[in-house]
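haha ok so turns out i had the wrong file open the whole time. this is the CORRECT one, sorry everyone. sequence first:
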Amino acid sequence: MNDIDAWVWWLVGAAALGIPLVVTAMPEFGMFAVGAVAAAVAAGLGFGAVIQVLTFVVVSVALIAVVRPLANRHLRGRPELATGIDALKGRQAVVTERVDGSGGRVKLAGEVWSARALDNGRTYEVGQEVDVVDIEGATAIVI
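then structure:
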């Protein structure tokens, strides 16, 4: 087997490793495929079979040892993005119409919302800042 055949076989191996990557969505197969491409480059440069195999092993293991933990940490560390009414909880609002246990209005995120106090005995006056603790339908529950 000559050098041209070797690099072609490495590329065939890389393509073959790409198939389970797509089917199983396991990134390790992609890392092995990159190792096979690196071995194909070594073969194309005229290095022998031992160097080709070492290149494949070193690149594959390095990618698994370095990239995989970084990717896992990135996926676990990603904060969950609050959207819709969940994004409004915890925000401050300004009372535009007296708020008590039965109702009122607040300006929240640039919009006027109906509101009511979480504590039925509590009253908030116009201009006072309140915290939104929950949203029930179209009503902000404030403290």
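The CA atoms of residues 48 and 77 lie 43 Å apart.
again sry for the mixup
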